[in-house]
Design a protein that fits this description.
Elements: H1 2-6, H2 17-20, H3 22-35, H4 42-57, H5 59-81
Helix pairs in contact: 3-5, 4-5
Length: 82
């Protein structure tokens, strides 16, 4: 669908896709926020409960997992911005 609108397969050329496909951009934003596990989305409950259970069993590993969640969120938001 994106190829038909942009006529290229280079990801670097997809910047500014909001102007061409606004509904796609809104859906992509919702999926991105869900992947980041923003409170109120489906990913939040599972991620929170996993980190809570891990914290009770192994706090150090839970902290490493939380750091991974933060890096994942930074990457996803950076990707959406591009």
């Amino acid at each position: 669908m994106i190829y038909e609108r942009r006529h290229t397969r280079e990801i670097s050329a997809f910047g500014g896709i909001t102007k061409v496909m606004p509904m796609f951009a809104i859906a992509f934003m919702l999926v991105t926020l869900s992947s980041v596990a923003l409170p109120g989305t489906n990913g939040f409950v599972g991620e929170f409960l996993i980190l809570l259970g891990a914290w009770q069993a192994q706090p150090v590993l839970a902290a490493i997992g939380a750091l991974g969640v933060i890096f994942g969120a930074v990457y996803m938001l950076w990707m959406f911005q591009r």
